[in-house]
Known about the structure:
There is one protein chain. By secondary structure, the protein is mainly alpha-helical. Helix content is 50%, strand content 10%. The protein has a 3-stranded antiparallel β-sheet with strand order 2-1-3. It starts with 24 loop residues before the first helix and ends with a helix. Manganese (II) ion (MN) binds next to helix 1.
Amino acid sequence: MEKVKTFTLPKLPYDYNALAPYISEEQLKLHHDKHHQKYVNDANALFAKIDESKAANTILDIKAVAKELAFNIGGHLLHTTFWENMAPPDKGGGGEPSGAIADLINNNYGSFERFKKIFSTAAISTEGSGWAALSVHPCIGRPLVMQIEKHNVNIYPNFQIIMALDVWEHAYYVDYKNDRAKFVDAFWNVVNWDRINKNLALVK
Ligand code: MN
């Protein structure tokens, strides 16, 4: 059976109000239903354009299409990782990492506190709109913090992202106005280490 070949907005793995007070229902609903949905819609519209050009036997402006695809696919996949790597505080969100992710962090960063400082600094200092992400390369097993501008600039090719934090203003403006540092600090109360451990297991 042929696969669907389009993206679908994933349902959040928790209720819209489940991350409050760290992320409010209004903020989360807007972010998921409007912003994330738009990346899905725009990526699918590009897929349709690609299929139409094949049917018409024409060639699209590949430079423009590649740039728009990278932006919208990056937007969709990074948001999907972001929703999954959070959990409500009463359902395992927050606290300190355990298991394989704890070992990875301790061995490579010295301590969770030191890692938290580095990751938070990456998130706070990302220029304009973007992300902080933790990535691991399957061959060398070295974790690296990425600072992603927009959804697609500064990515290390083939490093797999196991944890992402959205620091576009649309991710926090309703709750924190322009205080990105406060939002980054709040993130640690809902980070989902179980899920990040699962993501890490997929890298190997
Ligand atoms: Mn976002």
